[in-house]
Amino acid sequence: MSVTHSGKSSSVIKSSLIDADGGILVNRVVPEAERGLKAVEAGSMPKVRLTKIDLQWVHVISEGWASPLKGFMKEDEYLQSLHFNIMRMKDGSIVNMSLPIVLAIDDKVKEQIGSSPDVALIGPTGGLIGILRSIEIYKHNKEERIARTWGTTAPGLPYVEEVITPAGNWLIGGDLEVLEPIKYNDGLDRYRLSPQQLRREFDRRQADAVFAFQLRNPVHNGHALLMNDTRRRLLEMGYKNPVLLLHPLGGFTKADDVPLNVRMEQHSKVLEDGVLDPETTIVSIFPSPMHYAGPTEVQWHAKARINAGANFYIVGRDPAGMGHPTEKRDLYDPDHGKRVLSMAPGLEKLNILPFRVAAYDMVEKKMAFFDPSRAQDFLFISGTKMRTYARNGENPPDGFMCPGGWEVLVKYYKTLQAEEATQQAVLSS
Fold it and tell me: Which residue intervals define the domain ATP-sulfurylase PUA-like in the entry (predicted)?
């Protein structure tokens, strides 16, 4: 049975494929009948204002992506996550929890809270979001958090600069109660399926295997090759109806990544053009912010998909990685992400599917699995190179991406360049 914020049983929320971490899919959204009273109660509590990215984490916690976590981490949970990448349950079992999910406050807010056991959470635009109960406030050692999460304190880490550096010197943990499901009203909410909704959809489609693919870039034909090949492999293993969860990350991303709305439009074209089969593919948005923390973060990405009901997870080269912010090299070893996933404590029940590297075969004029025996025939087109093609109005080699998807990218970069030119003209004048 699932458990609501109040501890009462609700309807069964599980697919037959894989149990949520801790055995229960967390749901921290207050039942509609109780919302009015909770809102009145929150009115007399000290207030903590959330940033846009804090709100994304509220979304993540409230829907159970981080199950069994029921709120922002208290100090014991934070220390287990930061130092061991796990959380230990009361029965002694462990679940993977590689990223600290925390809420920072400054000295002034800490003083205003005083000895209050509960606080109200206010959204970036001033509306009441929810309540944090039985709170605990503890020191936010930023340097330790950064060093242990990223393995470096080099300047230029996007999440650090956007979220951690400007944050307060205290962390506040507690049990979360969210008054209403989090919505963004950006035209994409229909794609934001909760773990509960995804599990029900997998059951509706009678999936006997669900394989998740995490991405933050447009889908090119190399990605499609990997996803279609994975389905072929699962059919060969004896599964009758493997379903793909194409699961783009929808929270914070760095400035030069393609925005979510453009990526979602591009993904739609990939399905329309038949590169992926709509009958065996579910496209949904994963609401988590992106850390770019390599092997540490890829464990979070895999763990969250367990809670969504996926029992297979595709992992490739340098998952959740990025270039070093100050040196011309990868920040992480490109092979370490998939190796760490295959050994990570708490992820044993998830089947990890490493895939071979795909590149553009200049002889066959299509994306293909890299063949080292004729390495000279292959062209590697990175995300950066793909964005450069689109920005310059150049076409990639035929067969790199479906035409409809490529048109979406070119249109986006043309619009972006026009906006940049307008801004430059305003500054010049």
Answer: 20-180
